[in-house]
């Protein structure tokens, strides 16, 4: 997998990277490489290839943090409901931490109620604003995250608003978010690799 640099305005102090370019289904004129990458992302969201992705993420974490990995909390941006969050992130987070030696932050975050799912839709400004307002229905264990180095994971980054909201929430309770890792970075112009 080729790494893709991610830029999110206001997050320049963090190391942000993605494994794949993600072309939404409405982008039609793409090569087999992009179709393959898109399927990896779809499979991940459906819970089918967590082990392969976890190996890549764990390897990246160990390379980045070295012997300090045992002091780093790995935390996934929560999905739109607690049920979806557990289905998508619980096993994945456990596996990444088991393979890398990082601290699993999954059990220290809860989703109350439902949030609007925005992936797979043509995001409108109103929908994005609604999702940001709903971000407050994520509860984090402030005592656990205080003074911890945190690496945040999300499956796809488009505008970075979910990452920013979650990162800000963790930083408000005293966490030090240093990295963001994404499986896919949304792109709209196909670049053959």
- What's the main sheet like? 6 strands, mixed
In percent, how much strand structure appears in the residues? 15-25%
Question: Which consecutive residue ranges, at least 5 long each, have pLDDT under 50?
Answer: none
| H-E string | EEHHEHEEHEHEHE
Approximately how much helix is present in the residues? 25-40%
List keywords for this structure.
Rossmann fold, 193 residues, PRTase_dom, alpha/beta, six-stranded mixed beta sheet, two-stranded antiparallel sheet, single chain
Explain what this protein looks like in three dimensions.
The chain is α/β, with parallel strands linked by helices and 193 residues long. The protein has one domain (4-186): Rossmann fold, CATH 3.40.50. The protein contains six helices and eight strands; from the N terminus they run ββααβαββαβαβαβ. The protein has helices at residues 32-45, 50-65, 82-100, 125-134, 142-145, 161-172, and strands at 4-5, 15-22, 72-76, 103-104, 109-111, 138-140, 149-157, 176-186. The protein has a six-stranded mixed beta sheet, sandwiched between helices. Strand 3, helix 3 and strand 4 (103-104) form a beta-alpha-beta unit. It is globular and about 50 Å long. The model has no long low-confidence stretch (mean pLDDT 89). This is Ribonucleotide-diphosphate reductase subunit alpha. It comes from Hallella faecis. InterPro entries: PRTase-like (IPR029057), PRTase_dom (IPR000836).
Brief synopsis:
The protein is of the alpha/beta class and 193 residues long. The chain contains six helices and eight strands.
